[in-house]
Design a protein that fits this description.
With 260 residues, the chain is α/β, with parallel strands linked by helices. 47% of the residues lie in helices and 13% in strands. It contains eight helices and seven strands. A seven-stranded parallel beta sheet has the order 3-2-1-4-5-6-7, with helices on both faces. α2 links the parallel β2 and β3. α1 packs across α8, α3 runs parallel beside α4 and α4 packs parallel to α5. The longest helix is centred in the middle third of the chain and has 29 residues. It starts with 9 loop residues before the first strand and ends in a 7-residue tail after the last strand. The mean pLDDT is 97. Bound molecules: nicotinamide-adenine-dinucleotide (NAD). Nicotinamide-adenine-dinucleotide binds next to α1, α4 and α6.
């Protein structure tokens, strides 16, 4: 078996019971990193999937909208593994509505989960990384960290915000072995996006296949979804020594979405 490049490291991935977070957790585990999973819903099946890759796995169910629960999760990771070497801020939610109709409670939840949680995990993870002079912070932003789309004010604001947080975190640690970068996917077929396909199918009386084509055709020239596994491999690269001097970038994997 080829050498596992992340053996001895611990990765905490927020929102990793599903979708992109689980895909990233599995790719980091394949490289030997122990994993702290987080997220809602069933965690036993994802935990077993990651454990099957031959690493230690723990789960903490902290709600990423609550600073006190995030603090408890970071403490739990430290007690389990000594500290977090690789932090992947991935948890996120979406809500679609025009600004004037946007429910205030949804705005607050999106800013808390998609943006503020990354500030809290980062501020709590950095002292350990600084002590070891090695660390990786990966913020899962989106193409919506770089461009806007109608009806997504809170999401686009949070994602632009996390790209900004990425740059500042990278700069503050630029002379150290700690890097911070953002990953910016286009469409990835996860439960978060399937809901948007379903809404389109319902609104326009289309089949799932027709609604999917329409969704991709509006934004993504490749007409293909990016997969969680492809994003996981990008995360592995950003954790590698080859990426030692990749600092503060927002790296698209978007089928040409933002090249237009
Ligand atoms: P998903 O719905 O499949 O997974 C989201 C994860 O976050 C789940 O594990 C869920 O339990 C968790 N989560 C939600 N609210 C939480 C909370 N309050 N506390 C803790 N965990 C919580 O979605 P996904 O598509 O995999 O999205 C993951 C990230 O990727 C998000 O930040 C999203 O904005 C981003 N993203 C997704 C796409 C896409 O096309 N799917 C594109 C660009 C960016």
């Amino acid at each position: 078996m080829a050498e596992r490049t992340l053996s001895g490291k611990t990765a905490l991935v927020t929102g990793s019971t599903s979708g992109i977070g689980l895909g990233i957790a599995k790719c980091l585990a394949k490289q030997g990193a122990n994993i702290v999973l987080n997220g809602f819903g069933d965690y036993q099946a994802p935990k077993a999937e990651v454990e099957a890759l031959g690493v230690q796995v723990r789960y903490h169910g902290a709600d990423m909208s609550k600073a006190s629960e995030i603090q408890a999760m970071m403490q739990f990771a430290s007690e389990a593994f000594g500290g977090v070497d690789i932090l992947v801020n991935n948890a996120g939610i979406q809500h679609v509505a025009a600004v004037e109709n946007f429910p205030v409670e949804r705005w607050d939840a999106i800013i808390a989960i998609n943006l503020s949680s990354a500030f809290h995990t980062s501020r709590l993870a950095l002292p350990y990384m600084q002590q070891k002079n090695w660390g990786r912070i990966l913020n899962v932003a989106s193409v919506h960290g770089l461009v806007g789309s109608a009806q997504k004010s809170a999401y686009v604001a949070a994602k632009h915000g996390i790209v900004g947080l990425t740059k500042v975190t990278a700069l503050e640690n630029a002379t150290s072995g700690i890097t911070c970068n953002a990953i910016c996917p286009g469409w990835v077929l996860t439960p978060l996006v399937q809901k948007q396909v379903d809404a389109k199918a319902h609104e326009l009386s289309l089949s799932n296949e027709e609604a999917t084509k329409l969704l991709l055709g509006e934004k993504e020239p490749s007409m293909q979804f990016t997969t969680p596994e492809e994003l996981g491999e990008l995360a592995v690269f950003l954790c590698s020594t080859a990426a030692n001097n990749v600092r503060g970038v927002a790296w698209n994997m978007d089928g040409g979405w933002t090249a237009q």
